């Protein structure tokens, strides 16, 4: 029984990712989740009490995976600059990933305070991950620099997501160049 519930919950989260990446937060409804998973709408409420609860669960499940992928990309870098470059490039490489599109859709929506806090905490983990490298580069306020660097990454993500005139590779290269020139202390 527990395994069945776990599989159903995973199916609901997968459906939520698809709905968010395809149609944004407006598409994430319990009737749509029920239709995608073959569950009765009332059954969806047995797993999640609200849309915000679905969002919170997605953050809890997907952000750590995303952060681990960014950390893994940074690990082989031999210099602080290399770590910054890997940090930016990996996040932008994940833009096409369904989990990332779902997170972007979530971030753009109006959420309750609990869901917004989970997103802030997850982004805080990314900021912490890069702050050490910025400190190694001699920045006197590495945490502030890390938050500003994440702002550059977030702007590049939005540019890519909007299907800007520039090729995603051009946006990525520009973000890396800005990060390396703008964060050096």
Please report the total strand number as a whole number: 0
The secondary-structure class comes to mainly alpha
Total helices: the number is 9
Computed CA radius of gyration, to the nearest angstrom: 18 Å
| Overall residue-averaged pLDDT value | 85
The dominant shape is elongated
Q: Main sheet?
A: none
How much of the polypeptide forms β-strand, as a percent range? Answer: under 5%
- Helix amount, in percent? over 70%
Order of helices and strands: HHHHHHHHH
| CA-CA gap between termini | 56 Å
Report the uncertain regions: none
Q: Describe it for me?
A:
The protein is an all-alpha fold. The protein contains nine helices and no strands. Helix 5 packs antiparallel against helix 9 (168-182), helix 7 (113-136) crosses helix 8 (142-161) and helix 8 packs antiparallel against helix 9. The longest helix is centred in the middle third of the chain and has 24 residues, at 51-74. 31% of the residues are buried. The model has no long low-confidence stretch (mean pLDDT 85).
List keywords for this structure.
185 residues; mainly alpha; 9 helices; 0% strand
